[in-house]
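Let's study a protein:

===
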Amino acid sequence: MSPHERAFPGEPDEPDAAGGPAPDRPGTRTSADFTIDLGSHELLRRAHVLDAVGPDWDPVAVLHGEEAAYELLYSGLDAEQQRMYDELVSAGVLPRRGGGHAAA
């Protein structure tokens, strides 16, 4: 059987139920272990990201903008919406802000 073809149930190259070698071919393995070092690729990816955002990118300003948007998103809730927000915060779905109240 070619290594690129799939073994059908009952064929000699089929592994046993535990994923080990086929019973009639002792010492054979059904999978290969390998390692890939992605360190150099990660450095290249980071370089491309920093190049794309440009020299004017200010991460602190971006974070403040995200915080302001979050506060605006959960401000002005009516009583039912506030109850649901508080429930989601209590359940850990949303982070606690302003003492637990969105409009705070």
Q: What stands out?
A: Residues 99-104 have pLDDT under 50 and may be disordered. Helices lie at 39-53, 59-73, 79-90. The radius of gyration is 28 Å. The CA atoms of residues 21 and 27 lie 7 Å apart.
